[in-house]
Amino acid sequence: MTSIDLPFEEQLLVFRAHLAQRGPSSAIELLNGRTQFRYTAMYGFVNRGMRPLCMFDRFREDRAYVRSAFVLETLCCLTVANGEFVSADCRTDRRLLSLGGPIVSYCGMAVGPLAGPVVGILCHFDVEGREVKPCELAFLRAVAPLLLEYMD
């Protein structure tokens, strides 16, 4: 039985334990394994800009353009503005007509303290079309606060 087959609360316990024992990089990899997305990442805001804090590529290729926060800047700004942002196909999404670029699918969650400023983004993204399952979006909402302490 994989962790995604467990009841929601037990999935959260598995994630918490994984994060505490192995750290954020391993936790990001665990999140990625729950989806079809190629990339899962955590970005932090520094001096009005974004920087990648943690990224997992399921193909384990080192691509500089993917590590660049610039490629996700518009998507992350929309995520901050709305608290979360999802697009199964950024190429045809009316909210993103001027975006362009290599990212096709995106699912992001703003990370910040309660009633405080957003300090980072937790997201899945891909250069191919991917659907976001409602259960995965709910899981991102639940785990995003757990990653707050790693956003420094």
Tell me about this structure.
This protein has helices at 8-22, 24-33, 64-67, 73-82, 134-143; strands at 39-46, 49-57, 84-87, 105-111, 120-126. By secondary structure, it is of the alpha+beta class. A five-stranded antiparallel beta sheet has the order 2-1-5-4-3, with helices on both faces. Helix 1 (8-22) packs antiparallel against helix 2 (24-33).
Key attributes of the depicted protein:
alpha+beta, 5-stranded antiparallel sheet, 5 helices
Helicity, in percent? 25-40%
What is the SS-derived class? alpha+beta
Radius of gyration: 14 Å
Distance between the termini: 34 Å
Main sheet attributes: strand count, strand direction, barrel closure: 5 strands, antiparallel
Return residue spans where pLDDT drops below 50 for at least 5 consecutive residues: none
Give me the side-by-side strand order of the main sheet: 2-1-5-4-3
* Number of helical regions: 5
Number of strands: 5
Instruction: Please trace the helix and strand order, writing H or E for each element.
Output: HHEEHHEEEH
Shape: globular
Please state the average pLDDT score: 88
| SS strand fraction | 15-25%
